[in-house]
């Protein structure tokens, strides 16, 4: 089963979701109140379902789709206006108000989808992205989040997966050093 990560700005909402999952026999891997803590949790876990409760000021569900692709399934539970602002068709949405049974049903479906979509080269792709970020940080004297966003933007601008674009950067850097 995929690890459940709850992301939301409201501690009350995170606690309610944790209790709902516990009542159904599911456990929560991590609760996150910021985008940076969410990214750390996703980096540590290769098989995650993110339950996005509303909005985080420093991370959107669309960002996660771009950064983590098939590695993560996302359930966004929010007001209709927030749901409409998401662009990715990869994000499963539930409008508030909703029932606990609807949430648990959606999570079961996402868990099944997640098992079918799990890529086989997660570790290698993640490693190449980390190498590319290190190269960018050294060359441009920027922080890790800045390198991450630059890599993400460049991949989007070139209509390619982040891992594929990262591989180009690593390969170009190897040629310069060799």
List keywords for this structure.
alpha/beta, Arc Repressor Mutant, subunit A, five-stranded parallel sheet, Rossmann fold, 2 domains, 178 residues, 58% helix
Describe the structure.
- The protein has 178 residues and is α/β, with parallel strands linked by helices.
- It folds into two domains: 115 residues, 3-Layer(aba) Sandwich (Rossmann fold); 56 residues, Orthogonal Bundle (Arc Repressor Mutant, subunit A), CATH 1.10.10.10.
- The chain starts with a strand and ends with a helix.
- The protein is built from eight helices and five strands; from the N terminus they run E-H-E-H-E-H-E-H-E-H-H-H-H.
- Strands 2-1-3-4-5 form a five-stranded parallel beta sheet, with helices on both faces.
- Helix 3 links the parallel strand 3 and strand 4.
- Helix 6 packs across helix 7, helix 6 packs across helix 8 and helix 7 packs across helix 8.
- Helices cover 58% and strands 16% of the residues.
Brief write-up:
By secondary structure, the chain is of the alpha/beta class.
User: CATH topology of the largest domain, anyone?
Assistant: Rossmann fold
Distance between the termini: 44 Å
What is the strand tally?
Answer: 5
CATH architecture of the largest domain: 3-Layer(aba) Sandwich
The biggest beta sheet, please? 5 strands, parallel
- Uncertain segments of ≥5 residues (pLDDT<50)? none
Percent helix among the residues?
Answer: 55-70%
Look at the structure and give the CATH class of the largest domain. Answer: Alpha Beta
Whole-number count of domains: 2
Q: What percent of residues are in strands?
A: 15-25%
Order of helices and strands: EHEHEHEHEHHHH
Number of helices: 8
Q: Over all CA atoms, what is the radius of gyration? A: 17 Å
Round the mean pLDDT to the nearest integer and report it: 88
Overall shape: it is elongated
Q: Label the structural class.
A: alpha/beta
The CATH superfamily of the largest domain turns out to be: Response regulator
Main sheet: which strands, in order across?
A: 2-1-3-4-5
């Amino acid at each position: 089963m995929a690890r459940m990560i709850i992301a939301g700005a409201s501690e009350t909402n995170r606690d309610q979701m944790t209790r709902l999952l516990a009542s159904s026999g599911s456990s929560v891997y991590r609760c996150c109140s910021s985008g940076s803590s969410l990214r750390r949790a996703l980096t540590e876990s290769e098989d995650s379902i993110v339950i996005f409760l509303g909005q985080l000021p420093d991370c959107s569900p669309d960002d996660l789709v771009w950064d983590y692709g098939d590695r993560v399934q996302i359930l966004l539970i929010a007001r209709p206006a927030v749901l409409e602002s998401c662009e990715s068709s990869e994000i499963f949405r539930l409008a508030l108000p909703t029932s606990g049974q609807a949430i648990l049903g959606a999570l079961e479906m996402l868990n099944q989808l997640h098992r079918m979509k799990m890529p086989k080269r997660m570790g290698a792709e993640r490693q190449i992205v980390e190498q590319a970020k290190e190269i960018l940080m050294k060359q441009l004297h920027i922080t890790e989040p800045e390198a991450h966003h630059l890599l993400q933007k460049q991949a989007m601008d070139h209509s390619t997966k982040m891992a594929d674009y990262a591989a180009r950067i690593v390969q170009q850097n190897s040629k310069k050093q060799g």
